[in-house]
Design a protein that fits this description.
With 801 residues, the protein is an alpha+beta fold. It has 21 helices and 29 strands. A seven-stranded mixed sheet has the order 3-6-1-13-10-11-12, sandwiched between helices. It has a six-stranded mixed sheet with strand order 4-8-16-15-14-9. It has a four-stranded mixed sheet with strand order 19-27-28-29, with helices on both faces. The chain is globular. The N terminus is likely disordered.
């Protein structure tokens, strides 16, 4: 893999920390078992919570009897919906908010479905919390759960989102007129006329199947009230601690300042931990009500069936093209399965809408998106958040169009790519913030050229022809696929960084964005070290602590580096100025005669005076030393910056995959996987490579292995890892990686987010490769995962047609 360091260092005389593959400073502690996850935080006298969850997908609650459970050993309390009825139902308000610009231009429908903290009247999915037991330990709480008696009256179940849209479908939420949660549509140009005059049209129905994030650390939350101050402290594996703080305060009727939320070490989030859950509100409530610390951690079955799901979409997509294969119009009708509650509004549906066109030039567009409520676990963003689904549909449609026109798939893509000289490129759509969508930078043709070269397309085609002439070797067929994508990264509205110089000379950097494994303590320290002019090892990074940074948003939507990184950079530059000004006063020289390097301020002349940070910061004013006239103590050096991005920084990538498919067993072997990505300037190439690799691994999991399956009765059939298959390292091939650099003009560092990028294309590229391999059978891949049984079914179905 070519690294950013060569390019970045050339711009910084070799002295920059940015661009170096610095080993992650957090790894030593984590590898030694010294991580501090929620479950590691021992709170003396804590009680533990366990939740009784609905065994029905849709049913009325006729009665709940907790009498026997209350007398069980070790039980402190048992609560039902009636016991918390005075608390407001939960809404993910920030995620459900429609930006004013988007509301004015497109007038989308967004219906609110508040979720009761514990179900009272009816349940809407298997796994919905109905009661909670608080006991001296989890074992006793689980025992008591079995003594809670609930009488249910089953109701009709809706699992299929298209069935849920029928006029005669039972309504999940009786205060709504139907099961539509969100709806939005947009048009560009005149798609009807373009389709009518097109040389070729392809119409397809593609499905993105449901699967889940499966973080190593399941969800967990603990809470404690300080008996002296009455202040509530909450530890949670959340990606958005400030939003959780505000939600807890609202639910419990407290001021936000009375709640302190800490996101300690988090063992993977991937979006699943980026939203609010009722457990995160009930545990703090229990701590206040009982006067004792409370802990809840999720078991693996709960994580698979009751934490948020993702991905399930249906695309009815049409592409129109001229005789040369240039796309003249796209139409897509997208149906998104929201599950039982509308948790995040337009986030996923609109991400799908505004990423559908990808890197392609499309003059005429009509996209219609509907989010539908069903009796399944609610769906929310998962790494990629609507982009893998829409890229699957668009790239599969491109492959079908290439077949229709008799053009190689890579050539068809090349003819339709936006060129770098067209940047910034306006698509005609409206982005998620409500502004006209614009790609700020990129070189999509170069991404594809490199992917084609690395994949050795001509060599693969030659091997294909040879095998087909001789007969497939042992029934094994070779195929190659391609997929390109764009990703709007750096979602606002802002992120915070505060830098303080301690009396010891150490630098404390606090950011609003917590880490779930992204390496913030290393990459953010690199940015700060460059901006200030200090060694990397004197910087301490704190993330996800609402006291350290009272204002923040979180680590979601590929936004941390763009927002927190640029806030850090700007705060660091301001602190550097403060340091030099303070040193000038202390040394009795002018500031422009000093340089700050490696943590020491010194004269720019040989033999001149110098002073280190430990001798400068936090010291009391000295007699005769002038102090600032603005009222600030000259040696109390700190700065806070709230960075607000002016627009999205658009990352992009091209994937290519070569596979071998066994027609007898249905097994797929990935022979070669190529990824070329563009995330602007790279802060730490090693961390960047790890992020892309992790995303691809999760994407391959969704493409070939993972699927959350429901029966028609709404019962999850894949509730354990015996049924729900997660790939191991053995199933992930070595990756052939490359990168290009088109720095973003939307921020000072020229960076773009890349945490989600690797997960966006694998489903599309592997589907295309498998379809190419099975072309002699006439197979068309319209959904995943491409398990051996599904591959065999595709071959049989093609033979029967």
């Amino acid at each position: 893999m070519s690294h950013a360091s060569d390019r970045n260092r050339s711009d910084n005389d070799g002295a920059s920390w940015i661009g170096r593959s610095v080993p992650r400073v957090e790894d030593d502690r984590l590898l030694r078992g010294d991580g501090r996850y929620v479950d590691d935080i021992a709170l003396p006298g804590a009680v533990e919570a366990a939740f009784l969850r609905s065994p029905h997908a849709h049913a009325r609650i006729e009665s709940v009897d907790v009498t026997a459970a209350l007398t069980a050993p070790g039980v402190v309390a048992v609560w039902t919906g009636d016991d918390v009825a005075d608390l407001p139902a939960m809404l993910n308000k920030e995620e459900l908010r429609t930006p004013p610009g988007l509301a004015a231009l497109l007038d989308p429908l967004v219906r609110m479905t508040p979720m009761p903290l514990l179900a009272r009247e009816k349940v809407l999915y298997v796994g919905q919390p109905v009661a909670v037991v608080l006991a001296e330990n989890r074992y006793l709480a689980e025992d008591a759960l079995e003594l809670v008696e609930v009488r249910y009256a089953p109701l009709p179940v809706l699992v299929d989102p298209e069935h849920a849209l029928r006029e005669d479908a039972v309504r999940l939420h009786e205060d709504l007129p139907d099961n539509t949660a969100v709806a939005v549509a947009t048009r560009v140009g005149d798609p009807e006329t373009a389709f009518a005059g097109a040389h070729a049209v392809v119409s397809e129905r593609f499905e993105a199947h449901r699967y889940v994030a499966s973080p190593i650390e399941t969800r967990a939350v603990s809470a404690q009230v300080d008996p002296y101050s009455g202040r509530l402290t909450v530890w949670s594996g959340t990606q958005t601690p400030h939003r959780l703080r505000d939600a807890i305060a609202h639910t419990l009727g407290l001021e936000s300042a009375a709640v302190h939320v800490i996101a300690a070490d988090v063992g993977g989030g991937f979006g699943q931990k980026g939203i609010l859950y009722v457990e995160e509100l009930l545990v703090p409530h229990a701590a206040r009500r009982l006067g004792r610390p409370v802990l809840w951690r999720e078991d693996r079955n709960e994580n698979l069936t009751a934490s948020s799901h993702a991905r399930e979409q249906i695309h009815r997509i049409e592409l129109a093209a001229d005789a040369e294969g240039r796309i003249v119009a796209v139409r897509d009708r997208i149906t998104v399965n929201f599950g039982a509650f509308n948790m995040t509004g337009l986030v996923v549906p609109y991400n799908s809408l505004c990423h559908l066109l990808g890197p392609y030039r499309v003059p005429n567009v009509h996209i219609d998106v509907t989010g539908v409520l069903t009796n399944t676990t609610f769906a929310t963003p998962y790494r990629g958040a609507g982009r893998p689904e829409t890229v699957f549909a668009m790239e599969r449609a491109m492959d079908r169009l290439a077949t229709e026109l008799g053009i190689d798939p890579e050539e068809l893509r090349a003819r339709n790519l936006v060129r770098p000289d067209e940047m910034p490129y306006a698509t005609g759509l409206v982005d998620r913030s409500g502004s006209p969508q614009s790609y700020d930078s990129g070189d999509f043709p170069e991404l594809l050229r490199r992917a084609v070269a690395k994949a050795d397309v001509e060599g693969v085609r030659a091997r294909q022809r040879s095998r087909r002439r001789e007969g497939a070797r042992a029934g094994k067929h070779l195929g190659i696929g391609f997929a390109l994508y764009i990703e709007a990264t750096g979602l606002g509205p802002f992120e915070t960084a505060r830098i303080d110089i301690a009396p010891s000379g150490r630098v404390r950097l606090a950011i609003g964005a917590p880490s779930q494994g992204q390496g913030h303590r290393t990459s953010m320290a690199q940015i700060a070290a460059d901006a200030i002019g200090v060694p990397l090892d004197v910087i301490d990074v704190i993330g996800g602590d609402t006291d350290a940074t009272p204002f923040g948003v979180g680590t979601i939507a590929s936004r941390a580096l763009v927002n927190a990184g640029n806030a850090t950079h700007r705060a660091g530059r301001l602190v550097r100025e403060r340091i030099v000004e303070a040193a000038a006063r202390r040394l009795g020289v002018t500031a422009d005669s000093l340089v700050l390097s490696d943590g020491v301020v010194s004269s720019d002349k040989p033999g001149g005076p110098s002073i280190g940070l430990a001798d400068l910061a936090g010291k009391a004013p000295l007699p005769g030393i002038p102090e600032p006239t603005d009222g600030r103590h000259g040696t109390e050096i700190s700065e806070t910056v709230h960075f607000r991005p002016p627009g999205f920084a658009v990352a992009s990538g091209a994937h290519a995959a070569v596979v071998e498919v066994d027609e007898h067993t249905g097994e797929i072997e990935i022979l070669h996987y190529v990824v070329v990505h563009d995330a602007g300037n790279i802060v730490n190439p090693m961390i960047a490579e790890g992020q892309v690799t992790g995303g691809i691994a999760q994407g391959i999991g969704g493409a070939l292995y993972e699927e959350m399956v429901y029966g028609p009765d709404g019962q999850p059939r894949t509730g354990t890892y015996m049924d729900y298959l997660v790939p191991t390292s053995s199933e992930i091939p070595d990756l052939d990686m490359d990168e290009i650099f088109t720095p973003s003009p939307m921020n000072d560092l020229g960076v773009k987010g890349l945490g989600e990028g690797g997960a966006i294309a694998p489903q599309a590229v592997l589907a295309g490769a498998v379809e190419d391999a099975l072309r002699p059978f006439g197979v068309v891949v319209r959904r995943g995962p491409l398990s051996p049984s599904r591959v065999r079914a595709l071959i049989r179905a093609a033979a029967d047609s």
